[in-house]
Amino acid sequence: MSEPILELKEVDVHYGVIQALKKVSLHIDEGETVSLIGSNGAGKSTLLMSIFGQPRASAGQILFRGTDITHKSSHYVASNGVAQAPEGRRVFPDMSVEENLLMGTIPIGTAHADEDMQRMFELFPRLKERRNQRAMTMSGGEQQMLAIARALMSRPKLLLLDEPSLGLAPIVVKQIFQTLRELATTGMTIFLVEQNANHALRLSDRAYVMVTGEIRLSGSGEELLGNQEVRNAYLGGH
Predict the structure, then answer these.
(1) Given pLDDT bands bounded at 50, 70 and 90, which one contains residue 1?
(2) Domains of the chain and CATH, by start
(3) Which of 33, 71, 138, 215 is a plausible cystine mate for 142, CB 3.0–4.6 Å?
(4) How far apart are CA 68 and CA 213, in angstroms?
(5) Helices of type H across 80-189
(6) Are the C-beta atoms of residues 11 and 23 closer than 8 Å to each other?
(7) Are 8 and 44 in contact (CB under 8 A)?
(8) pTM for the full model?
């Protein structure tokens, strides 16, 4: 059996004296889409950021493709195949769409930039229409597409997505998740942190539920969709 592409082993993370993650263990296999769901403040974003060492794990191990990256620099992690579309999009507001996409090539260089930019325009046709437009003038949904496309420009082995549906209209959320589904069918490995449990679980092969910094439940997306505890807490009981 092949080793997971990402594995966390009993990871603790502290902000000063506050413990944000407690003995978190999870794994993601190559080609999987895995979600981490939980309420606001549960520690989901902290877990994603700890993969890049921001903040650094205070105990435990983080392995990427079998290599211990617990104490590696953010640049090392990014240049070895992990990319993140952060919460709140965080595009470069004064740069055009094309310039934002080029920023995504920093970990790997620009050798494939033209080819990959065309692929992003096929994946996100709206970005092609806006290619010369400054990011700050675009809608929230367009900025989210840009943040995901920018992450993909580094040709990642693992794509981390932090709350891609946050603050977006339902029709835009549906478009974003449809694109993620297309990415998953190409074999892209996706780790998705998301409060919108309904969309996340329907997209995912497997999922974990985080409560106050601990993993409380795990299973297939389908199993957790049918779990009454999950339905009551995150799906309004439906």
Answers:
(1) low
(2) 30-51+79-208+217-234 (3.40.50.300)
(3) 138
(4) 22
(5) 97-103, 113-123, 125-129, 140-152, 170-185
(6) yes
(7) no
(8) 0.93
Report which residue type is found at 183.
L
Q: How far is CA 86 from CA 6, 193, 221, in A?
A: 18, 10, 23
SS3 label, residue 80? coil
Place of tokens 């297309």: 182
Kindly state the tokens that stand for 161: 């997505």
| Strand pairing class (214-220; 206-211) | antiparallel
Is the pLDDT reported for residue 117 higher than 70? yes
Q: What tokens were used for 124?
A: 């996100």
Apex 155 CA angle, 91 and 59, nearest 5: 80
Q: What is the pLDDT of residues 186-234, one digit of tens each?
A: 999 999 999 889 999 999 999 999 999 999 999 999 999 999 999 988 8
Copy the structure tokens of residue 33. 């889409």
Give the up-direction half-sphere exposure of residue 216: CA atoms within 13 A in the CB hemisphere. 16
